[in-house]
Amino acid sequence: MSQTLAAKAQQKSVYERELMAMVIAIQKWRPYLLGKHFKVHTDQKSLKFITEQRVMGEDQQKWLSKLIGYDFEVKYKPGKENSAADSFSRQMQYSHITTVQSEAWNGLEEEVQRDEKLKGIVQALLADPLSQKGFQLKGGRLYYEGRIVVPKGSPRISWILNEFHDTAVGGHSGYLRTYKRISSVVYWEVDEISKLTMERNLMIKELQEQLLKAQDMMRNQANKHRREVVYEVGDKVFLKIQPYKMKSLAKRLNQKLSPRFYGPYEIVKRVGEVAYQLKLPDDTRVHPVFHVSLLKKTISASAEPQPLPDCMNEDWYLEPVPEKGMDYRRNDQGDWEVLVKWKDLPEFENSWELAERLKEEFPVFFLKVKEVFEGRGIGRYGRQYVRKRKKEKERE
To answer: Do you know which PANTHER family this protein is assigned to (predicted)?
Structure first.
């Protein structure tokens, strides 16, 4: 093993440094030495009597306390007889001067010469190296404040963006970090519009990568809840149409108690990989092809098919038609509401609808309701309520 001592430790005496080296070596190989008897060979003769010394300094006591529990003895071996150990620490070493060459920068000097502005800077530096502030020549290449200069509009710029962002070395660091890394190594002159364009391109790349990551995460989460379901032609399945969309029917408070499945219906054929065509009633206006997620296989084969609502159109919207006004009331806002019985729908689908809404969407039905409830005050009270609101506003 080999370890460099700290600057403070190097100022200690030879004896203390040799003691530190011995203790560090024993601690290094502790798993192999603990519980066994071993010998320590050293060229420092005074260490031979380390365990027999009676007077010690604080540093010696600290280091010797770390040797408690070890069974060892120190053997003195002169340095001239221990040449094998010294050869490892005294062998001659050479400092190699190496440089990294990249073919990507080949021909950069020619591009700089084709740029009139940079060409003038190079000629001025050749005449006087201090004439151009911030610029300098190194190995025939032009640098600005320690950054290699690339001509404006050079095709290398797109390569640089790709290397600093898309490659494994670039690491997809993000827009701002990539921009800072490029600007610390490479320099090219840009106007404000070109700078904004470069920043935009980096930002677009970052957005595209983040969108792909988000799509992968959403796909993985969705696949956790998906199941492989395959039906055969002739199987009977229930059709899920809940929650269906209601175009003019008021939303019910007990919406979750509405029917969730209709059927069962027989599978006629398979359409693609995830869709099936069902045998629906002839008077149904809904398209008969459905995704597999909307189907549920029946347990009993003797179940009778349940017809779809007559008021459901091809877009799965319920378009109910009011049939009869059952009752009326005034809500907390003072508006009149009518309890409507809808045609071809059961009684539990009856809903309270605003009179003004019925007047706009079903004017003929509203006239019939108005005639029925006119004598009970619905029309008269509505006019009185409007006049009352006008007077309140005038007072304010």
So the answer is: PROTEIN CBG26694, PROTEIN NYNRIN-LIKE
